[in-house]
Amino acid sequence: MQTHRPIVYSRRGGAAASQPIAVAAALEILNQGGSFIDAGIALSATISVIEPGASQLGGDAFMITHHAATKENLAFNGSGEASHSAIPSAFDTKIDHHGPRSGTVPGTVSAWFATHERYGKLPMEVILSPAIRYAEEGFAATRDFVMRIANFKKLFPGNDFFASMGIDSNLGIGDVVIQKDLANTLRLIAKGGRDAFYLGELADLIVSGTDGWFNHEDLAKHQTRVEAPLTVDYRGYRVHGQPPPTQGMILLEELLLVEADDLAGLSEAERIHLMVEAKKLAFLDRNEILADPEFIPVDVDRILSDEHIRARRAQINMSSAWNGPGAEVSEGSDTTYFIVADSEGNAVSWIQSVFHGFGGAFVPPGTGILLNNRATGFDLDPNSPNLIEPGKRPAHTLNAWTVTNPDGSLRFVGGTPGANIQVQTNFQLITQLIDLNLNVQQSCEAPRWQHLNGDQSAVETGAGTLQVEARFGEEVINALKAKGHDVLVLPDYGHGSSVQLLELKENGTMCWGSDVRVDGIAAGI
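The structure assignment produced for this chain is given below.
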């Protein structure tokens, strides 16, 4: 398969992300002797400055880390809890889409310090210096930056909150963007640590700026959960995914549902059909049980058990598409994914988000902190396991993954933004790498599909649209239609994902891939 970009090879570490400047920030820290987590925090903070439409300090972050020397894999859950005021009766028919009431406690900054405590080497003053520099001295607005603002203004013409960030919403490509309040916030965090955000001056500004929707106890009680990732064996490899309340369980269930099949031996249409049908069944299980496990038991072991997988696999008809009942929930799609690795072979699979585009579109005055609107991921239905409650975390789409060899050493790291598309794209990536033996750049650029539910009638019947890139070709598309799929053909590179991939060879060489569908880049040192 011919690719538009070459594989990037490195020996001393590297990074892959959707913004070249953020990758440069990570390399800057690696070159100063920083660890993979030091560089990851630098990238996270910098991309929050230059890509706030997708992720920012007021959002959430999730990581899966691999420590090469110990072969330890950890899942860091940086999701925030609902406000003390977040009860169903606080809302009318739906949860606010914008404003402070749409958000949960920001988790990203806490996640920085939770990972740094375990794996950091450099002080935060050094780690956050690139982000502070870009916020204070400015950066050149990219095409993506300008387009995100234009799209937001088109959707919400009466909400020009950008001035509260210090951003001119009428700026053009190449114009300089300076965010003084955000620079000051980053400087306070660099100097005062985690407490500066959750207990100190910034906490005061968040509480007062949200008119008490968040109180000091909401912020002070927040914690990053650190636990073992969900894992399954797949064709001799070990796949590590995010535990609840994220939907990483879907990715692992999808893999188990197709493991008994010879994916490489199937035709492309048969392979897509099988994987789409597996996706539908996995989402049914997600909708039945996914919630905050600290409030409601979430029996992932049952979902991933041999007995359940056999029963679900028996429901797949290779001759025709199944179209109901059941549908996935609607989710925000504005997210950032990236990978960082260091010279010791340690790596992090990192994803962060403000949920919908520009999150809650609300900035507590004087902070530059763009709050998420993750509370819209809750339900108001009293029968839902995902019912909104104070202190509860909503069900999340965010998931990152890694793959280790039978001996526990690292083999692959990957991920993508894309809401409910994430677990579908990641499903394709892992099978391409393991079953089809594509290299990382080929997998980044290969044609993709996504199965999504459309209008209300489709949601009610469980039917949906299978969107496929045109590069699959007419023969494959017609074969999928013949199986009963409602196919929508996307442009050649029209799939809504932004993949970054890393493969670690036995000799320690790192092979990096980055998606051509966005402005991303992979680079090594």
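Interim note for the steering committee: The two ends are 27 Å apart (CA to CA). Residues 230-331+400-519 form a domain with the Serum Albumin; Chain A, Domain 1 fold (CATH 1.10.246.130).
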